[in-house]
Structure formats: structure tokens, C-alpha cells
Specification:
This protein is an all-alpha fold and 249 residues long. The chain is 67% helix and 2% strand. It has a domain of 76 residues. It has twelve helices and two strands.
């Protein structure tokens, strides 16, 4: 059914909107979320990839004490330049903050954006992947999509400002294009698979050797025919992946 991906997207969207709307006044924890928020605010304000400005440090004072005043290049107003975090997810948040502002409502806007662009798409993507793996079982594909659409943990993931949100959709999108390229070999599909895979690798599997795993997917079954495909996949991975590794050593 051609309309099923759209219908399952709407169902997944509505289910994920429930916890978002019920927690509209919810803030964030002083953990990884706080770091991503600092970086996004700095990017949205045009101050570069910085964190731990003086105002941010004051929020941490009751829990942890550390002094950055002697750090090289530290600016109390804007914070310290960093390469500790990969830039893709903070850039996503920065785009949201740029359009919706930097007041407390930014958390609701970020969670809403995550539901629309990162959370709800998992259900139709699961359906499409399942259809490629099990082309003769429409019922199984629809059931798998409904499970992803209604799985409780996935409903609340968008409440957190973390890389888990793009993790799932990037990996699943990459896998879908891999399956499409096996069905109908195409350089563009392999490039897209690599482009989706690269930021996922940078966030979750940072060791560069992971980028060689894709080689075996194509080389082992048909060495000669797969060489061009491997090259396209790696070409898609390398530009984004290398930039992510460079920023997040």
C-alpha cells in the first residue's frame, strides 16, 4: 500500500507529540544535554563552537567546581573553543535555536523538531527496509513499522537533547540506500548511503576502521563488480566522516 508510509508517519508523529506536549515546561539535565545546548547556543549566536561561558559555569557551581579562567583562549563572555564534541548535532540544534530564539522555549522547539525530522520518520523507514528484506510479507513490514511507531522508549527519546536521536534515523537511512543499491546498483544510492553513514560513525563508532566495514558488504559477494560500488560508498563516507573525526578526536 503506497499510502502506508505516510499514514504510519502520522501515527508515529501523533504518539510522539503526546510526551512532548505534556512536558512543554521541562528543562534539561546538566549532562551531555547541557553541553550540546551550550554549543548550539554559541553557534546560533554566531560565536563559533564554544562552551562553558561564565553564565554557564554559574549554573554548575552548586554541583561541580572548575576554573577555566587560566585556560588558553578562554573568553568569560563567549566561552572556550572546543573540539571535544562532533559538530553535526549541535548544528542541528543551532538551526532550531536560530529560528525560534534562545529563551527557555528553545527546548520545546528542539524536541518538536526532533519528533518531526528524527523520531517519526523511523516508522516509515522501518517499513521500507522491511519491504526490501521481506518483499513477500506486507503484513510483517507493517507490523514492524507499528512496533517502532509505538515503542515506549522511542516515544520519549526526543525529550532528550542527545545524539541518540539522529543516530537511529541516519543508520536506518544508510541501510535503506544500501539495500536499494543491491537491488539496483547505482553510484548515487551508494553515495547517499555513505553520506548518511558518515555522521553516524562519527557520533557512535568513532574508530576509523569502522569505515572499512562497508567494503566487505560489496567486495565479498562479487569482487570485480563491487569495486566501483565500494568506491562510491567510501567517497560518500569520507568527506563527512573525516570532518567529524577531525572535530571530535
Amino acid at each position: 500500500m503506497k499510502s502506508f508510509p505516510f499514514r504510519i508517519y502520522l501515527a508515529a508523529l501523533l504518539l510522539r507529540l503526546i510526551p512532548i506536549l505534556l512536558t512543554r515546561s521541562l528543562g534539561i539535565g546538566l549532562d551531555d544535554m547541557f553541553q550540546y545546548d551550550m554549543l548550539a547556543r554559541s553557534l546560533a549566536s554566531g560565536n563559533g563552537f564554544r562552551w562553558y561561558a561564565q553564565l554557564d559555569l554559574k549554573q554548575l557551581e552548586p554541583y561541580v567546581k572548575f576554573d577555566l579562567s587560566t585556560a588558553t583562549g578562554y573568553d568569560p563572555q563567549y566561552g572556550l573553543y572546543t573540539s571535544f564534541r562532533a559538530p553535526l548535532y549541535p548544528a542541528f540544534l543551532a538551526i532550531v535555536y536560530f529560528f525560534f530564539g534562545l529563551d527557555f522555549s528553545r527546548f520545546f522547539a528542539a524536541r518538536l523538531a526532533q519528533v518531526i525530522f528524527l523520531g517519526a520518520p523511523l516508522a516509515p523507514l522501518t517499513y521500507l527496509v522491511s519491504r526490501k528484506l521481506l518483499p513477500d510479507s506486507e503484513r510483517t513490514s507493517q507490523t514492524s513499522a507499528w512496533l517502532v511507531a509505538a515503542y515506549p522508549m522511542l516515544l520519549v527519546y526526543p525529550l532528550g537533547l542527545g545524539t541518540e536521536n539522529p543516530f537511529f534515523v541516519l543508520l536506518l537511512s544508510s541501510f535503506l540506500f544500501l539495500l536499494l543499491s543491491i537491488e539496483t546498483p547505482s553510484a548515487s544510492r551508494l553515495l547517499l548511503s555513505g553520506l548518511f553513514l558518515a555522521p553516524h560513525c562519527a557520533h557512535s563508532l568513532r574508530h576509523p576502521s569502522f569505515r572499512g566495514v562497508g567494503d566487505f558488504v560489496f567486495v565479498l559477494p562479487a569482487p570485480r563488480k563491487s569495486f566501483a560500488g565500494c568506491s562510491c560508498l567510501c567517497a560518500g563516507c569520507k568527506p563527512v566522516g573525516d570532518s567529524e573525526f577531525a572535530v571530535a578526536p
